[in-house]
Amino acid sequence: MLTRKYNDSRYLLWLAVLFFLVGFRWSWPGGIKTWADVDTFISKKYPRVNHISTGELYSLFSNGRTLYLFDIRTPEEFAVSHLHGAVRAEKAEEVDLPRDTFIIAYCSVGVRSAAFIRDLQQEGYLQAYNLRGSLFEWANKGYPLEREGKSVYKVHPYDSKWGLFLEKKLHNE
After folding, report:
1. pLDDT digits (tens, 9 = 90+) for 151-167
2. Distance of CA 28 to CAs 2, 25, 40, Å?
3. Complete domains list, the chain, with CATH
4. I want to staple 97 with a disulfide (CB 3.0 to 4.6 A). Which of 57, 101, 120, 133 is the partner?
């Protein structure tokens, strides 16, 4: 009996080492290591959500397109920096706009904003889009950020895991 328990322990240890060596990725959030992982996670969790790229949004800004922009981050994150014209929101129920309004939502990497857009779409907002890569990708590309109407170059990194998706020089610490 003692030998079997010892063998079981060795087997479990060997399995753990094997998983580590072959790059086994635990599910959310430890398994998310790249932008492709983030996109895959969001696509699987929110399959019906519409997306827009940071480049497409930058072009819309450059062309003067009218849109409503919602920042789905915490007040502390928003206070560090946000996109020009963004309004902070927590829940889709807060949105009181015509159903044909062109809406874009973002957060740090796109997970919270995807849930927000899913909820808006369920309420009949068919032109609601999640910003793929969200604020971190936007900032990483050097696109403009602001705080209190002034240009800034820092972003709240959310936490140590998600902050890895934001260039270190952009962290507000």
Report:
1. 999 999 999 999 999 99
2. 37, 9, 11
3. 25-170 (3.40.250.10)
4. 101
